[in-house]
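Supplementary Methods. Inverse-folding protocol.

Structures were first reduced to a discrete structure-token string of length 377. This string, shown here, constituted the complete conditioning input.
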């Protein structure tokens, strides 16, 4: 498949599908939270539909200026151990190797990276790689940012080859929305596919954590890109936040889950949309998110429902596992502190709560799920 000329758009004034009045109204939003898209992705929008899902993902909305949340909702600043490197969980380190994406999701939890005077991303990842090499407990490294597949292939190979020289690094993951934003980046770069074939081995795989938010992103072109990644030996899974007005319908979410599983890309995580500044139009309460996911799971096969619904909280990935008329049940799926590993928590039901910090605990909770079950029995 030949590549059309993909142009990137960073000036909202030049989006001709928007009226002059719309561009004028949305300009203050784009000035605060940067706009970026490309011709391929914009071509997926039905401009006659004001509620088009792709439009909702990348076109600014006035509601983003409503007071809501904070820029670093999960306090990622506290996770840095070296310039451009976060180490929150014992076996996993993050390298923020790029501050650009193929487009900017309006609900991004790292929109702070795209603002002026941000210094979290380091294009020379040497300090992070040196830290990882000195910490043998780290077996997983996630390349993120920004989008690592926006790097030149030569830059990406430099990073991956250096990580492969570290014996205790078994898994390299790339968090990327490029398979949805611009699959031609994959399709028409044989050097990229050769890179994956070389470094994604039988013993140590490379994973791509794709970010498909809506079934309309799963086009013929994006499926070809995913297939090429898998042919190159990459393990590909998907994760998405649940976004109000985008994929918070059980039918839409089930369609996404099914189509991903048909394409061989299993759903991995569903995230509660973080209470990040600018996310007022997108965040929905925890109880609603849980209900949508549970209803969607009834509409799909076992292969499609292998997801976990989590909050990426400052303290860890906290999974919502149950709901009654009185209570919300949570547990630590991943924990920043070892004492929290597997900890089971019971909170008063609050249908207006968006985040863990909005909930009130019922009582003192045992250290682990197993301990709780023993006490309950």
């Amino acid at each position: 498949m030949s590549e059309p000329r993909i142009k990137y758009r960073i000036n909202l004034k030049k989006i001709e599908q928007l009226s002059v009045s719309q561009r004028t109204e949305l300009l203050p939003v784009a000035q605060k939270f940067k706009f970026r898209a490309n011709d391929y992705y914009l071509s997926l929008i039905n401009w006659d539909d004001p509620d088009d899902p792709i439009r909702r993902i990348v076109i600014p909305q006035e509601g983003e200026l409503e007071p809501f949340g904070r820029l670093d909702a999960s306090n990622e600043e506290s996770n840095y151990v070296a310039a451009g490197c976060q180490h929150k969980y014992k076996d996993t380190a993050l390298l923020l190797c790029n501050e650009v994406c193929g487009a900017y999701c309006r609900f991004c939890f790292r929109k702070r990276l795209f603002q002026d005077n941000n210094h979290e991303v380091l294009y020379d990842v040497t300090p992070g790689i040196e830290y990882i090499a000195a910490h043998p407990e780290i077996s997983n490294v996630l390349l993120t940012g920004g989008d690592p597949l926006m790097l030149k292939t030569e830059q990406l190979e430099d990073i991956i080859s250096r990580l492969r020289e570290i014996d205790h690094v078994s898994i390299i993951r790339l968090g990327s929305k490029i398979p949805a934003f611009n699959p031609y980046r994959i399709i028409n770069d044989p050097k990229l596919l050769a890179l994956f074939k070389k470094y994604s081995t039988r013993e140590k795989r490379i994973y791509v954590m794709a970010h498909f938010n809506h079934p309309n992103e799963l086009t013929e072109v994006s499926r070809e890109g995913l297939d090429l990644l898998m042919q190159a030996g990459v393990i590909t899974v998907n994760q998405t936040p649940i976004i109000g007005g985008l994929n918070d319908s059980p039918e839409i979410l089930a369609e996404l889950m099914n189509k991903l599983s048909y394409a061989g890309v299993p759903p991995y995580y569903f995230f509660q949309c973080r209470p990040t500044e600018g996310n007022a139009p997108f965040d929905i309460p925890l109880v609603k998110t849980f209900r949508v996911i549970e209803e969607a799971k009834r509409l799909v096969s076992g292969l499609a429902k292998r997801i976990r619904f989590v909050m990426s909280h400052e303290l860890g990935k906290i999974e919502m596992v149950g709901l009654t008329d009185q209570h919300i049940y949570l547990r630590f799926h991943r924990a920043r502190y070892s004492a929290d590993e597997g900890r089971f928590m019971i909170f008063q039901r609050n249908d207006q709560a968006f985040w863990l910090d909005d909930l009130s605990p019922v009582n003192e909770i045992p250290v682990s799920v197993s301990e709780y079950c023993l006490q309950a029995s």
